UniProtKB/TrEMBL annotation:
GO terms for biological process: apoptotic DNA fragmentation. It holds the Pfam family DNase_II. GO terms for molecular function: deoxyribonuclease II activity. It catalyses: Endonucleolytic cleavage to nucleoside 3'-phosphates and 3'-phosphooligonucleotide end-products. Belongs to the DNase II family. This is deoxyribonuclease II. The keyword Hydrolase applies. The lineage of its organism: Eukaryota, Metazoa, Chordata, Craniata, Vertebrata. Residues 1-23 form the signal peptide. Its EC number is 3.1.22.1. Keywords: Hydrolase, Signal.
Amino acid sequence: MVTRFTLCCQIALLLFTCLPCAADISCLNEEGNPVDWFVIYKLPKYKLDEVGSGVEYMYLDESVARWQMSKYMINSSQGAIANTLNQLYMGKAYMANSSVYVLYNDGPPDLKYIQAYGHTKGVLLFDRAQGFWLSHSIPHFPSFPERGYIYPSSGKLNGQTMLCMTYQYAQFLKIAQQLEYLYPRFYNCSVPTAFSADLPQLAKLCEGSKPALASDKNMQPLVSSQGEKFTSFVKSKHFVEDIYTGWVAQVLDADLLVESWQTQGHDLPSNCSLPRHTMNIKRIRLPTSVRFRSYFDHSKWCVSQAYEDQVTCLGDLNREWAQKWRGGGLICSYNPVIYKAFRQLVEWYISCRMTGHD
């Protein structure tokens, strides 16, 4: 016999099980599903043999294992970047007190460029469970939360890279310490009071305060939500050195091939003065046989010259004289999928003897 009490319990249980579960904040892939990490390489408009749209991009994560040309355009409301950022925009996370978000860019949208800040660009969004860190090279991006996802027209000309990593909450306490060294320009952010005790660095940066640093640079190991190991290298403006040559190559004990946007007359030449060398990449060749020169590529990345080292880093700084005096960083990985994807892009680089190699 079914009593009224039993019937009510059954109805309540049915209603409870039908309620949708709140999804954890995460990097999202091309289909909108959670992933541990992904990399996007936006193609430049001007290539060696053609002029493109400036909004095509390649996508990479652990499941696809090699570069895939996206069926979406980067300025559309679909695709991995839009899916990931829409957790902030469409999810209205920027209006809630249950999560932290930060948008930073030395060249923010609609605001005047100020060189005093670190040469760094990115997004953080996380709650007490987990979230994502998106590090990228795109000026004037992303848009303010209330405007929704908008890709800037200025971002069509040059190549750009984006690295998204999913982390559990404890890792963001370490990331916050790294951001102090970068001294990024926070142009939109929210650190609710409930998080400020754990994240005093973020709260102060969000308020516009400049931190006092214990040293001029810092290295921090990070572990993604699925156990992928990354290393964050960050330097302040007080470490007056090319981050690739003077620090990262020596710590990683690897000769590096570096792709960065170098303006003529301000670029740093390939350098073999220290035990480990850094050499400038001059031409990129995609798996689709599309080729382009490095001065149309605003991305910043490097790979180990030796295949056995399998080092890949993505980040903020160009190999230019002026950027010795800027804060910025690199996020490095030993993941073989990431390494193989980037290493195969190197068509031509300049050795320290000023001869080309492939």
